[in-house]
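ok, trying the design again with the full structure, not the truncated one.
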């Protein structure tokens, strides 16, 4: 049976929606994975916080390895703002990495209910990869965009940052501003496109070619890591440009 190939995430139940001041909130199958990933990152951190020792154990070793790896990867590009920005950038990397990898768990995308679309039976999954939802990747991109330009303002002031965007040519400022706004599209659609394509590929290959699907599953582990690195390094790169070369000396 083919999985449902839909860009829009599906509600996990028909009564799972609530009125909020910002509109209707729907609990979708991708949001469930988001909450699971958040719990998987937050709970070990809270448990470890009160038990940090000079001689680290298994969990502390693993957490320190993750933090030191990300710090070595992004620290040099953030200059003097590194200590303040590192927690945010590290959160991007770890959340995206684990969200990508959690999407490969056996129940994700394979267990759900049956609906009939255009005369064919399709599977609507109870769980769906968080980063295969455009709303999630767009929210991550907005967060990165805020970090990039708020750091530029802190580095040069509002006028100096606008001048840096205009590249000293105010006539072309609208064009450069559109290019800056396109960062939102670039960051969000790159991550969404790769993860959504992987979801579709795994669903189709798992339904028709289980052996080949296993090969793709292994490749998706690598692709999930690569996409987390790409999103994080692009955020650091754009932030480094906003800071300016003179701030790194």
């Amino acid at each position: 049976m083919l999985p449902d190939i839909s860009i829009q995430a599906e509600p996990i139940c028909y009564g799972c929606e609530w009125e909020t001041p910002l509109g209707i909130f729907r609990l979708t199958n991708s949001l469930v994975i988001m909450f699971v990933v958040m719990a998987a990152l937050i709970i070990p951190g809270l448990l470890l916080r009160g038990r940090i020792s000079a001689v680290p154990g298994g969990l502390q070793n693993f957490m320190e390895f993750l933090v030191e790896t990300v710090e070595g990867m992004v620290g040099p590009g953030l200059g003097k703002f590194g200590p303040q920005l590192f927690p945010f950038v590290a959160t991007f990397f770890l959340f995206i990495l684990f969200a990508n990898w959690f999407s490969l768990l056996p129940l994700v995308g394979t267990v759900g209910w049956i609906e009939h679309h255009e005369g064919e039976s399709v599977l609507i999954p109870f769980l769906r990869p968080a980063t295969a939802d455009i709303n999630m990747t767009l929210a991550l991109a907005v967060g990165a965009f805020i970090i990039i330009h708020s750091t530029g303002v802190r580095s040069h002031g509002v006028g100096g940052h606008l001048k840096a965007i205009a590249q000293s040519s105010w006539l072309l400022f609208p064009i450069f501003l559109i290019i800056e706004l396109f960062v939102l599209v670039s960051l969000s659609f790159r991550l969404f496109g790769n993860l959504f394509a992987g979801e579709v590929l795994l669903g189709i290959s798992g339904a028709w070619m289980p052996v080949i699907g296993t090969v793709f599953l292994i490749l998706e582990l690598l692709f999930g890591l690569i996409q987390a690195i790409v999103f994080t390094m692009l955020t650091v790169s754009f932030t480094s440009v906003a800071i300016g070369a003179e701030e790194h000396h």
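Keeping the full-length input from now on. Helices lie at 29-49, 58-74, 82-102, 134-166, 173-208, 210-243.
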